[in-house]
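Recap quiz, item 2
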Amino acid sequence: MPASPPTTDLRALLQRRLLVLTGKGGVGKSALSAALGLAARAQGKRVLLAEVRAPRRLPALLGVPAEGDGPLELAPQLGWLNLRPEAALEIYAMRLLKLRMVYRAVFEQRMVQAFLRAVPSLAEILVLGHLRALLDESGSDLAILDAPSTGPGAMLLEAPQAVVETAPLGALREGAEWIQRLLTDPAATAVLLVAVPEELPVNEAIDLHHRLRRGGFPQGGALLNRVLPDPFPAGADEVLARLPAQLAAHDLLSAARAYRRRLAIQRAHADRLRAGLDLPVLELPELLEGPFGPAGVAELAARLGAALRGAP
Amino acid sequence: MSLAALIRERRIVVTVGPGGVGKTTTAAALGLQAACQGRRALVLTIDPALRLADALGLPGLPPGEIKELPVAALQAAGTPARAPLGVGMLDTGLAWQRTIERLVPDVERRGRMLGHPFFRRMQADLAGAREYAALEELHHLHVRGGYELIVLDTPPTVAGVDFLQAPDRILDVLDQDGYRWLLRPALLGGKLGLRVLNFSGGYAVRTLSRFTGLDFLRELASFVDLFSELLEGFRARAAAMKATLRSEVTAFVLVTAADPNLAQESRYLYRRLQSWEVRPGTVVVNRMTPDPGEPPPEGWSARAGRALQAEGLAAAPATLLAAERSQELLRVMHRRDFAQLEVLRELLDHCCDLVPVPHLGQEVCDLAWLEQLRRRLFEPPSGGFR
């Protein structure tokens, strides 16, 4: 382990062209993708938010009603699209075949479905190819990909390499190489591992860290979401041990202990994450008030903005 | 029907739910309950979730094997068990291998199938492949007998595909008219594309090969060719599995937590069960924050803080303030969890019993803690948990 924990250089991360957020399902990847988008935009970046086969989750989190799959502008400097392999195949094939009529003849809908299922990694290649093409063409500074959760997320990133290794020369392989160059370029791309301080999310983040490292993907850090605030000062243990338990404050004492047990569990998992990763870990708070929505995303964006300015 | 009655009467209990809500641990507690009722039970979970081994304090439990926990060991951990408890982690690769062995007698052909790169990929990557292997194993163990109850812990939903779809999905991949039509030239001619036996198919193959290269399509064709004759076998087994899962023999238990992020996924799972003509018997809602009780009388904390400070505990005033704050935070979490429980009840159309389970304040890491969880599930305090 390094002598001092590495710190998250958010500013450097936002200089990349592509940030990919992945991690266990339900840890807040979408909310943090949206919040990062807002934080990057506040830095003057032109941002493209992308999700995969998850229609309109990001627009909903940002409080902007959207229809279809995009791409469209949710706000000035903030684009969005929902990546779907079927749509990407059409665009990709059209480039190659030129003629829509020919496309229709060859890629009739049922066939497209069958083909996407049959050829391993094709759906992933198409999704990433579509994103790369759009990033190049849209004039965006930064694309933020709200990737699928751990297993499918890793498969998405690994697909180009798998195709490069197995497919003979041809358009598919060339496309895969073109995407692979972007994904493995540390100056252009960073994967961010998202977790919450619980057992499985941390396990998955650590596994993913090693898996992605083997694949040669640059990793920018981990975002540890939903960390409970710790209001207790040093020396609290001794004070709580000395509090007379029989008093009117019986409930207070047991509540404090129950809360501290939760904090201890969270801290153990956070420590495990830090020990298991060779990466900086940025903590984000559990937002307890009200249902999570655009206000929560804005608050997370503000926390990221504070981290950008170097505040604690 | 109560959860206890389900565990007493059914032969198969399937836990379904989002990831990270204590599903595997709950499945283990259900199996333990059966052992406490004197039934021989097996808890079967699916790799790569090592949670079952962790929950039982059995770090060395190898995938693919069933370990029997004797009554004495269960009792030593403070459980009132009257029957042993079997636990096993499924090894997907092994389960697929066994499935192919049951269906294909020819050893040489079997070897070619198991070694085919597309098959290896399908087994590892295809959404539903793990789930299908789990169902195969469940069906096999159920038909073979030997257990009065099998608790199957399913993997969390992956990309919208849950294990109920798995047999159909596997069949779908192996039996696609679309690409059989597409690959007909290759399948009939043994050589791909250039000899055009079917005009449109041949044209499509030539066009596709511009994307993928011919070798790729040849591999695909040989895969379809190898596996298409297994379709009848798969289909028959899938039908038998479905019938078992839909019958009165089986109960589904939806395991979730009172987390707003999980509400829609829980509803989706419930709908999937419905569309599959099964109904969850019970919904277990884990990790509910208990009511943190009454705050101390006004001014008490400040006085106690000053008193302890006078005794030399400098941190006392800040600690007591923090204690009050933590009680408030727990109250917010408690209200949020119970409000969410009602949201969940609504989302699930008031379909079935919701069993709220208080947060253990500890992760289940051995049999003694599993017993604590079992008691919270099956022996709620009188008046119910608030």
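Chain A touches chain B through 71 residues (CB under 8 Å).
The first strand of chain A starts at residue 18 and ends at 23.
End of item.
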